[in-house]
């Protein structure tokens, strides 16, 4: 069986290879409008925006690049307390991993399998995670 790429020019193949590396960068961006709809599920525990307050979960306004476990008026679980003591901060990549498996993520980054988290919801859909992160980032000034 003959490959369909056998008769392709080197310039075409180079372009195809470049596209393969560039495409994932665009795919990783979230859509804040779709993220607002995803956040409705999060709003059972969290608030975000100018009038947001802590609820079952902490206020997420400004969470992107904020130190983990740093809101003085919220009682954090042992995992985020330990992350705060280590001076860890949230960024979009860390939030993306956290949303996939909060318990597994926090235990991994603080290297302690005994710590816990109040966050029990996992967001398995990668695009939904990107979208909700894009939405909350609009309230983070980042």
TrEMBL record:
Gene3D superfamilies, alphabetized: Cytochrome c-like domain
Listed InterPro entries: Cyt_c-like_dom, Cyt_c-like_dom_sf, Cyt_c_1A/1B
GO function terms (MF aspect): electron transfer activity; heme binding; metal ion binding
Source superkingdom: Bacteria
A Pfam family it matches: Cytochrom_C
Keyword list, A-Z: Electron transport, Heme, Iron, Metal-binding, Transport
PANTHER family to which the protein is assigned, alphabetical: CYTOCHROME C
Annotated protein name in UniProt: Cytochrome c, class I
Species: Pseudomonas agarici
């Amino acid at each position: 069986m003959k490959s369909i790429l056998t008769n392709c020019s080197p310039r075409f193949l180079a372009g195809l290879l470049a596209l393969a590396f560039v495409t994932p960068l665009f795919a990783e961006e979230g859509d804040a409008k779709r993220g607002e709809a995803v956040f409705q599920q999060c709003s059972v525990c969290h608030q975000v925006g100018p009038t947001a307050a802590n609820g079952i979960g902490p206020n997420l306004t400004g969470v992107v690049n904020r130190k983990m476990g740093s809101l003085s008026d919220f009682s954090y679980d042992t995992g985020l307390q330990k992350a705060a003591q280590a001076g860890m901060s949230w960024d979009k990549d860390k939030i993306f991993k956290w949303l996939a498996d909060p318990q597994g993520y926090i235990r991994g980054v603080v290297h302690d399998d005994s710590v816990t988290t109040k966050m029990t919801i996992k967001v398995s859909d990668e695009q939904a995670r990107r979208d909700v992160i894009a939405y909350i980032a609009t309230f983070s000034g980042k």
